[in-house]
Amino acid sequence: MVSKNTICLWYDGTALEAAEFYADTFPDSAVGAVLLAPGDYPAGKQGDVLTVEFTVMGIPCLGLNGGPMVSHNEAFSFQVATDDQAETDRLWSAIVDNGGQESVCGWCKDKWGISWQITPRILTEALADPDRATAKRVFDAMMQMKKIDVAAIEAARRG
After folding, report:
1. Contact 148, 93 (CB under 8 A)
2. How far separated are the first and last CA of the chain, in Å rounded?
């Protein structure tokens, strides 16, 4: 059963592949019901995968194989709070090394165009430091990074 509030993500025939990747990569993620099209539709034929219910880190999602007319952009992203460099590295590599693309400041895109912010908790805490000079040092360090380097963030925080 679809949750009352579900994020719908548009794919070009690859919703099931994406859902399986997310379920294999992120904790508290799973693939649910797969609905096959009961008839032909603009992006597919009867019997093709039309929608896939899945969760990403506990967030209910629906993958819709709507065709190539719509593409993802950075206006929507999943932000993943990581606990350490090892978790940051693992998730970043899973996304980027599987056909994804690096961006800046902890952002990357998966091979389907979905944006991800792989954000160590230490970065979020340091940016909110009440000492604005400390927060500025951390911000300046982050602005030079693609994948977030926890040791460099900690060093910037210490000054």
Report:
1. no
2. 51
Q: Phi, psi (5° rounding) for residue 33?
A: -65, 140
Read off the pLDDT of residues 32-50 as tens digits, 9 standing for 90 and up.
999 999 999 999 999 999 9
Q: Which token pair is 109?
A: 């895109």
Structure tokens at 113: 């165009």
Query: Which residue in the block uniquely carries the two structure tokens 């190539």?
Result: 68
Tens digit of each residue's pLDDT (9 = 90 or more) over 85-131: 999 999 999 999 999 999 999 999 999 999 999 999 999 999 999 99
Strand partners, 61: 7, 54
Positive/negative CA dihedral, 135, 137, 143, 145: negative
Three-state DSSP at 26 gives: coil
Q: Which residue intervals of the chain are DSSP H helices?
A: 15-25, 85-96, 121-127, 132-142, 150-158
Decide if 46 contacts 80 (C-beta within 8 A): no
CATH topology of domain 77-158: 2,3-Dihydroxybiphenyl 1,2-Dioxygenase; domain 1 (3.10.180)
Measured CA to CA, the distance from residue 53 to residue 33 in angstroms comes to 5
Superfamily for domain range 7-65: 2,3-Dihydroxybiphenyl 1,2-Dioxygenase, domain 1 (3.10.180.10)
